[in-house]
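If your schedule permits, I should be very grateful for your opinion on a structural question. I would ask you to consider whether the tokens describe a fold that such a sequence might reasonably adopt. Thank you for your consideration; the sequence and its tokens are set out here.
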Amino acid sequence: ATCGHGCKYGECMGPNKCKCFPGFTGKTCNQDLNECGLKPRPCEHRCMNTHGSYKCYCLNGYMLMPDGTCASSRTCAMVNCQYGCEEVKGEVQCLCPSGGLQLGPNGRTCIDIDECSTGKALCSYNRRCVNTFGSYYCKCQLGYELKYLSGRYDCVDVNECVTNTHRCNLHAECLNTEGSFKCKCKQGYQGTGFNCA
């Protein structure tokens, strides 16, 4: 089985046929499946879609049960949590539906953790971190683009000299470099390469 376009979050099952891993969809399994929009709905009250998955949370006054249902709780109603609560050893604690969120100073609302600035995010050397509410993702560094090569997706250097995205002077040569490019004035001209006289 060969999939010329590759299967980003899935495996190749037949000629250009991908079988997506749970939580992903699309011809090349490159799109996140929004489980919150499925019928029947996966959560009893509220649903937060995440990359490749989802999280359930309850309305104020309800407690999230292990099976994803919401049970009425007088103690939860009194605490007034943004995303429902849980009872731990007789104590009521507010919940945050994602590991990328943390309880705010008031102990009731959830605030985003910026994984990119805290150093919690793990992105390979040619990718940069982009923070999202409750999570983050890794994007190709400037000067690189996402390509499917030898069975996997990778960030590959963009040859600005070939794609004509350089800003070299008409009388300069373009030299491609890893993640960037250089301009050198042609023989008989001098300058920065962006300006040649």
About this structure: The radius of gyration is 25 Å. The mean pLDDT is 85. The first helix runs from residue 74 to 79. The first strand starts at residue 10 and ends at 14.
